[in-house]
Design brief:
With 400 residues, this protein is of the alpha/beta class. Helices cover 32% and strands 17% of the residues. The strands form two sheets. Strands 5-4-3-6-7-9-8 form a seven-stranded mixed sheet. This is S-adenosyl-L-methionine-dependent methyltransferase.
Length: 400
């Protein structure tokens, strides 16, 4: 059951806005940290060309059980990164199938801003998070961001809670962004376990990690082990399913059951990519199972859930100009994100039986429908949160 002071799915209003214009709305949100044109490039494997020497702001060397030292591209790039089809991917976890380069981090910047606007900040369970991070004499508050990517969420939390320590963990976090002094990034595969983090964090956050996780319920258990008693777990996952204007699954382009002009190429490409990811062993689709996953845990209390539909493209109209402006901001960000996302999926499909002409048809069709907006599309995001039972120092088994 969701606690009384938290958002429930029935009461959650992601698109409710006070009267203000776009500029003032964005000014209230945590600052996005986007590299300037002079920022050093993403470290490339040797075959991708020369790179300049740099170091990760802080690697596992700062952790209680250090296993990774400072990152030096000339030494470490070929071990941690690999180049394919003019994109860069992590080289340590074959399950995670999306790129790990600045083009991808730029896409994630837009997705991050969309989340900020959709839920009005960095996290949906505002009361629970602020309670967990409230100052306490002699206690160092800590925040863990798993699958940090470009680091925007971790950096935003570090800015909002300057007295807390924030650790962002990823297979290949961005090394071009300068975090505040209370934020550090680590190269790590959390799929191998995080025993060096057990019982150390007041907030654990994981967004869009299912692609790189084989068993999401086991992943939740590992997250809970990293929490202190009373700490807050925050989970966010999207669906690679496109919905129509009436929030029904959208027809796929090329499906003979529908008229030729009724199907979406974006929906088709995401459908094919999701199938490939699942066949490879990922946990895509886990967001739909949040309620079941958390409901089986006896060491979590005050769980809450929300489902947020976001329009793809600025086609949606609201009851007021303010709400329409809000839809426009989200729609434009989601349109840019979708254009980049289908290109991020290109290598995955080419490696799993799709021909270059097929993939290019998917991308070209997506570009057309995102440009003309004749198809009114939504995506959906699943949010879940819960608190670790304050009476339990260690996690108990799930209740079957």
């Amino acid at each position: 059951m969701a606690s009384d002071d938290e958002t429930s799915p029935s009461s959650f209003q992601p698109f409710s806005l006070p009267r203000r214009d776009r500029a003032s709305l964005l000014a209230t949100l945590p600052r996005l940290v986007i590299p300037s044109a002079k920022s050093p490039p993403t470290p490339q494997p040797p075959c991708a060309g020369p790179v300049e020497q740099s170091e990760l702001s802080s690697a596992r060397s700062a952790s209680p059980a250090p296993s990774v030292v400072s990152y030096v591209p000339e030494r470490d790039a070929s071990r941690l990164l690999k180049a394919m089809y003019n994109r860069v991917f992590n080289a340590t976890n074959d399950l995670y199938a999306l790129p790990a380069d600045e083009t991808e981090f730029s896409r994630l910047d837009k997705q991050h801003l969309m989340h900020l606007i959709a839920i009005g900040g960095l996290y949906i369970a505002k009361d629970a998070v602020r309670r967990a991070l409230a100052p306490e004499a002699g206690v160092q508050r800590r925040i863990l961001d798993l699958g940090t990517g470009g680091g925007n969420w971790a950096i935003g939390m570090g800015q909002e809670f300057p007295d807390a320590e924030v650790v962002g963990v990823d297979l290949a976090p961005s090394t071009t962004r300068n975090p505040p002094p209370n934020v550090r990034f680590e190269f790590d595969d959390f799929g191998l376990g995080l025993p060096h983090f057990y019982g150390q964090f007041d907030v654990v956050h994981a967004r869009s990690t299912a692609n790189g996780v084989r068993n999401y319920e086991d992943f939740i258990a590992e997250c809970v082990r990293c929490l202190r008693p009373g700490g807050v777990l925050l989970l966010v996952e999207g669906d690679m399913v496109i919905f129509d204007e009436d929030l029904r699954p959208h027809a796929l382009a090329g499906d003979p059951l529908y008229p030729e002009d009724a199907g979406s190429w974006l929906a088709r490409m995401l459908h094919e990519a999701r199938n490939v990811m699942v066949q490879r062993g990922s946990s895509m689709g886990s967001g739909r199972k949040f309620r079941a996953f958390l409901g089986r845990r006896r060491d979590l209390v005050n769980a809450g859930f929300a489902e947020v539909f976001t329009n793809v493209g600025p086609w949606k109209r609201g009851p007021t100009d303010d709400v329409t402006a809000h839809y426009d901001m989200i729609g434009n960000l989601m349109r840019q994100n979708a254009r980049q996302f289908v290109r991020s999926l290109r290598v995955l499909l080419l490696q799993h039986g799709f021909t270059e002409p097929q993939v290019e048809q998917f991308i070209a069709g997506t570009d057309r429908e995102l440009e003309d907006l004749t198809l009114h599309m939504h995506t959906t995001w699943h949010y879940a949160w819960a608190e670790k039972d304050p009476t339990q120092s260690y996690s108990t088994p799930i209740s079957r």
